[in-house]
Amino acid sequence: MRSPSTGLALAACVSARLPWNSRGERRRCLVSGKQQPRKGDRVSWKSHGAETTGEVEKKITERTEAAGRTVDASDQDPQYQVRSEKSGRRAVHKPQALRRKKDG
């Protein structure tokens, strides 16, 4: 999906009802080429200059209250609720802010 004005790829990942495309491949984010996070995935993200690690709790696809703020998500622009391993606090991030971590 490209922006009509600039021709650049849009920053949002395309959400799909099925995790697989027509060729039997996992759907990937248009910008980064990464697989979209799924519930239970161990991920990391930047928080105040440091890296935080945690687990994806759920995918948010509609405007709602989560982690103490209003999340303006949609099917085309999903966000993910994550829980920090260190503090146990919840946060909400766009998929491009999350990096999948290897278990271990």
Automatic annotation (TrEMBL):
Q: Entry's Gene3D superfamilies?
A: 2.30.30.1060
Ranges of Basic and acidic residues composition bias in the record = 55-66
Instruction: Provide the residue span(s) of the region labelled Disordered.
Output: 28-104
Which residue numbers delimit the Hypervirulence associated protein TUDOR domain? 40-98
Basic residues bias (residue ranges): 89-104
In terms of InterPro entries, this protein maps to:
Hva1_TUDOR
- Identify this protein by name: DUF2945 domain-containing protein
Species per Swiss-Prot/TrEMBL record: Streptomyces phyllanthi
**Taxonomic placement:** Bacteria, Bacillati, Actinomycetota, Actinomycetes, Kitasatosporales
